[in-house]
Structures are given as C-alpha cells and as structure tokens.
Specification:
alpha+beta
Length: 676
Amino acid sequence: MTTSGLLALDLLASALTTLAWLGTGAAAAFRRPKVALALFPVAVLVTLARVACVIALARAGWWFVQEKVIVAVPLLGLTVLVAAVLAGPRLVEAARGRGVMAARPIVVMPLLGAGFAAAAGLVHTLLLGYPATWSTGLLTVALFGVALLVSWRVVCPPVRGLRPGASAILAVALLGTGLAFAPVEATDLGGGVSGERHEHQGQAVTALRGPNAPAEGGRVRRFMLTARTSTIALSSGKQVAAWTFNGQVPGPAITATEGDLIEVRLRNADIESGVTLHWHGYDVPSGEDGVPGLTQDAVLPGEEFVYRFLANQVGTFWYHTHEVSDLGVRMGLYGTLVVHSRNRAEGLDLTLPVHTFSGTTVLGNHDQPIQQRAYPGMPTRLRLVNTDNTPHRFTLSGTPYRLVAIDGNDLNEPGEVSKVGLRLPAGGRYDLAFTMPATGVRLLVDDRTEGLKLVPAATTGALDPAGTTGSVETIENVRTTTGTTDAAGTTGTAGSTGSATAASPTAGPVENTASWPELDPLAYGEPAAPPFDANEQVKRRFTLVLDQGLAMVDGRPMYAHTVNGQAFPNVPTQIVTEGDLVRITVVNRGRETHPWHLHGHRVLVLSRDGRAPTGAPLLLDTFDVRPGEVWEVAFRATNPGLWMNHCHNLSHADMGMALHLSYEGVTTPFHGAHGG
C-alpha cells in the first residue's frame, strides 16, 4: 500500500477506535452490559489495527508518525490498559446478570477515557499537525482531561475532589498555550555555518539587477505591460470579468532569442492591491524577481517598474503577478515567455497556456476547441503551460510524440510515446514534439476538454522552408509557421504559403483517453551525466515537512498550510552561501498535492520515495509532491539574492505554505512580508 493510502487508513483506524471505545462506554453507562461486552473486543481489535498502521507508516519515514509515536499511541495505550484492567472484568460480571455494575464510574470512565484518548490523537494529527512539541503534547493531554472531567460530571453521580483535577488540567493547558507562542529560530542554516565573510556581505537585493545591454549578436526586446481591470470575451463570446495585461488574457506573449536583452515596463492602471511581474522558472537576477516586500515594492495604481534581464535560458516559461498572487493569477494577470535558440528549427510552434475561468477550462482565451491547419510532414511543437493552482492531465491522440523538455529544460534522448497521459503540475511546462501526420491530431485536457485540433492542410505545392512573415491576429488564421504563435489570439509572427481557406480533413472523433496510463518523467529518457555531482560534499541540508494545522498567518490564527509546523512569515529562512551544494527533502504529510517551486534556481531530482530517477536527469523549477510522497532535490547556489520557496498552489501559499531562501549577506530594504 502507498504511503498516502496508509495515511488515509490510519485516519480511518483512529476514527473507528474512537467510536468503538466511546460506544462501549456509552453502552455501559446505559446499562447494556452485553452490548458493551460485545463491543469491547471490537475496540481492542481496532486499537491494534491503529497501532499496526503506525508501524507500517514508520517505514515511510519518521515524519509520518512522529506525533503518533510520541503522543497519540502512548496516551491510547495507557488508557486502553486501564480499561482492560478496571472495566473488562466488571463488564464480564455485569453481563452475567448484575447489570447495575456496568454503569459504575469504575467501568464507564476507563472505557470513555480510551475513546477520548483515541479522539485526542486524531485531533492532534488533524488540527495540530507536524511536529509534536511540548506545546502540542500538553494541549492534547489537556483536551483529553477536559473531555474526561466533563463526561464524569454528565454520566456519573456527583463526586467531590474534581476541582483539583480541573485546576491541574487548566495549568497544563495554559503551559501548552504559552509554549505555543514561544519565539522560534528566525533562520535555518541547514547544518552549515554562518558569519563568514564573502563577496555579497551587506549587499542589498536592489543592487542585483539585470544588465543594460544584450549579449554579442543579440538585440533589445522591449515590451510594455499595463495592468488593468477589464471584461474579456472568450472564443465562445462569453464575457468574463478579469484582471488583464494590456486588456487581454493571457497577457502579451513575450518572445526572444538567446542572447537578447528583455526589457519589460510594467504599469498599473487600476489594480488596487498592486502588481509585480515574476518570471516563473527563469533564473533572473534577484532584483528582477518581482516578489513584493522582498525584492521590490508592489507597483500601485499610477506607478511603474522596469524589469531587465538577459535571455540566456532557452525554453518555455511564463510570467505572473506575485502581489496577491492567488487572486491576481486566477483573475488573469499572467502570460507566456518563450526564448528560442539562435538555430531554432522551422515548423509549427504553438504555446498553449491552460487556465480555469469560473469552472471553464481555456487554452489561451479559447473555451472552444482551437482548430489549426498544418501540412503533413511539418515539424510541430506544442508548449503546454499550466497557469492554474492544480495539476492538469494532457493527452495527445493521432500521432506518437516526444516529450522533449520539462520546465524549459531539454531531456536527454526522449523516446517516442503514445496513448499516455501527461500530468502537468501547477506552474509547470511540457514541450511536445512530433511530425504532423496525414491525419488529424487532438489535444485533450483532463480527458474531457478538447483543447486543440490539428488538421492536415490541403497542399498544392512544396512548403517554402523560409516562408514569408506576416502579422496574424488569431490562431485560426495561421496555417504554417516558422515562429511562435500565441494561442491566446494575440499577435504572433507566422510564415505562410498562401490562404488557409482550403478544405481539409477533420481530426476524427474524440478518443476516450481516461484509461491511458500516466507517463512518469522520472523513468523517461536516457540517463546522462547531471549538471553537477550530487554525491560531492553537501554544504546545506534542509527538510520541509508539509502539513496542515493551527498556526499564525500574518498575525492571525488560521487553519493553515504549514511548513515544519509553522506558517509564513514565521517559517525560518533558509540560509545558503554562494557555491554551496544544497539538498532539500520535501515531505508531504497532508491530504492535498503541493507543487513546490523555488525561485531563481532549477533543482536536480535525486529521488522520489527513496528511488532515484532511471531516465534522463530532471532539472525542474516546479514539482508535484503528492500526499505521502518524499522528494529529494539538490541545487548549486549560484544565483545570489533573496528568494521565495513556496507551494505553487497559490491558495496554499496564501495560507502559509511559503518561506524565504537567503544568500548570506544579502539584505532587503523592503518590509520582508509578502502580499500573497
């Protein structure tokens, strides 16, 4: 059984244990000794099942059982032992005809106590989460004590001497509460040392900006993005209230060639909360990263900010606001960023950002299938971008293809695949490449939404390799291309060889893809030497245990998404030094998937659940940590600055699942908090 299955089974066993013991106690209190006696062995069996679940979970890692081993199981074991010694024999006697004995406190209270202990352990797991501390342990014991005292007053005859017990429980609760507010370490050195002098000692993040000139042979690419509220029309004509860049969603496609200088001037017309631009997956200098409160102030209405960075990473990326980002991105403040190599291949190149507006899945601004003509034999590349908070599953039917790049990083010797599903994490990108067949090709999203239909174009002559350039307004107008066409219906550069009005075959019926197996990127492609030796001496080791529990978020108590039991901004900042080899272990104890995203760096996947990748080396900027999974990743600290390290389900980040990673010596003049 998987770890996530064991976690669910443990919760079920905990609930059943609680119900079994409370049911046994209630039967005894209502003078039903035979029922209580019948339930007693059931309660013992489910208790043993709970213990077995904990033992099985322990094999997956201490993170999954810590509070169970330290708090829940000892408390449950002690109370069950008391119930067996005090209540068990008396229940047997009562079942033989002395029913009144079953309702005595010496029988009822141990049975109820075992139920309360089981419930207290369940509450610790669900409400307090990881890790178990003196504070959470004392609060759990206090909760158990309160339940025991209240039930004694309700179901048993009045007795004297409860007041000292109540006072003791109150003292335990106050001590546990006080410890919960004890100050925590502000930084996490990851086992490294601090205080050494280095190149960036005392350097402000505002000094870490992009260059003013392109690389040799490059050019300056200037873009203007104005953020404003608007109403946009989807391809069906449906009107949607949105936050836009330049009045459109997605925002204008930013494209460049390797070596170019990208300069983007951001203006805010009327987004009251403010905006910034974060270049997702692009390792820009820290001062260009667009994190409000850390690398810049949010751009308020009437203000502007200029971003400038070198196009030195070829691949598929995207940009989005990082101020109130959960709401801002959902409302439409995002766009695509594609950087081509100088020797780019010719063919059809489509960038397809997927997004959800009010429950409607769209590709670009299309809530209806995009129909695109392409010549048979034409090299075709589909760039899939997930701009949502949750993963999407893509399936491509009608042709075999290769998954040539993930998160903008080319894969080594990707093999042809067909009839497989591609699970794309929130924030992630997949590049698919194939040769256009003589029949149609379909792209489905989540096995139900038809996103793209590629149909073979009728041809009366040979394709001109160079093509002629022209301005196109919608993807439907494009028949052949030697550039990138933005599926949002925005202007792109396309080469065509005539009119696209000729009749062409259809893409055929929609195929049922729900049963197709999921492609595992860790087992895809061929092994090769990684960009750095992950076996050399690791300077910093960090562990991030992701969970849910009560925590303080921006000074407010909340049922938060937590990292190591804390919520932003109280999660200790990770400290690294330039040149360090850093290893991070990410553990998901929770019940939801967390797409983990470190700004400014690409991480090398070392293992998932203890198993190393068997395919091509995987460099990612966003990776899905599903419930019960443990990922180990590493990166070389080569981009000095201050960086966010967070869940890219932006609602989770907004509820606390975020922290900072800081290069030692780099400082910020901003407030250090974050707008969302």
